[in-house]
Amino acid sequence: MNMKIQTEAELEERLSRPDDATTSAMAALDGDLLILGVGGKMGPSLARLARRAVEQAGVQKRIIAVARFTNNKLPSELESEGIETIACDLLEPGKLAQLPDVRNVIFMAARKFGTAGGEHFTWAMNTYLPGLVAERYRNSRIVAFSTGNVYPLRKLADGGASETTPVGPVGEYAQSALGRERMFEYGSARWGTPVAILRLNYAVELRYGVLVDIGRAVFERRPIDLCMPFVNVIWQGDANSVCLRSFAHCQSPPFILNITGAEALSVQDIALDFGRQFDIQPTFIAGEEGASALLSDVTKAHDLFGTPSVGKEEMIQSIADWIQQGGAGLDKPTHFQTRDGKF
Asked: 53 in helix, strand or coil?
């Protein structure tokens, strides 16, 4: 697959291009689609992917995108592509009740960075709000994004955490993310709501993600910390495809699925790969390399949906080209090196 991308318009098109499996999933989905918290890094491309898959399938379906829309250009951009938008602060009393009844709901609203010093708001977004949504949409199917941070760090030799690995969240962000899962589990138990919970880490595109963080550090000749020695990553378009295809697996009790790439990638090797692309010798922060990392086993997802369409080499090459040509970044570092759970 050729990933030569030179503009943000080309990138957005690539991220939202549906494959046959995604199109078939949207064709088979009964009812309209509501996306809560669409304004983040993944939401716009997910909404566009759903819209394009519906059109490609030749079916009629409303795609409704809800967010506070702090980016005031986003609503008009989405509306121009046939996606309905509703500006809404989901934590404002009574606002959830005013949203339309929709058969299929994706929950993406979350808070991670800024947790330290603002823990109460993180818990409100990540745990209190999911409880409200679980009740409001108890008669819908719900696909809820979660995070691999609910797992403890793992030694490479032990392999990544599977869906049956006991959770062990470190820090209040990860604890509140587990709280999000528990609220949707409660709703599913209380009302029989079919739910899928997607434990994602880490989504990547050309403007942000772990690979972008490492690539830009090499390009800008900044030393790289190896305290988190390995990472899992997945192309954002592949993660969004799995999200839409997960509605077919919603169940009560909830269906839990890890979403990421299969390989545990060495941070040092990634840096060296970028170094070869840029003809720059990477430097590393002196200190002992970490003995464990946040790693997930994705056997279950790959058995269901196949392996991701975009691999490590293609991502690194495309990101390196993007950086070298001065492509825009979102200026949202992942802080993937964080080991103490403080974000």
From this structure: helix
